[in-house]
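[Discussion] Sanity-checking designs against the backbone

I'm trying to build intuition for which residues belong where. Below is a structure token string of 68 positions. I'd appreciate it if someone posts a full sequence so I can compare it with mine line by line.
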């Protein structure tokens, strides 16, 4: 992904994410969990949510990865 994973921005880069970007990432992650837990035909539990598993595209949209 273009903006790497969330852990890169939290722990490796010196610049801070703007509050609007932080909100966008949190909202995207919450939407992904809602879909996995309630909107998909089977309930899926991720069981390993951590910053290195949150990928960020060029617009800082969060994508949840590492399901297996």
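Best answer:
Here's mine. Compare freely.
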């Amino acid at each position: 992904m273009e903006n790497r994973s969330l852990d890169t921005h939290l722990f490796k880069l010196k610049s801070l994410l703007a509050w609007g970007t932080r909100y966008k990432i949190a909202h995207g992650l919450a939407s992904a969990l809602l879909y996995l837990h309630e909107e998909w035909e089977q309930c899926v539990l991720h069981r390993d949510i951590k910053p290195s598993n949150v990928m960020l595209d060029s617009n800082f949209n969060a994508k949840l990865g590492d399901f297996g």
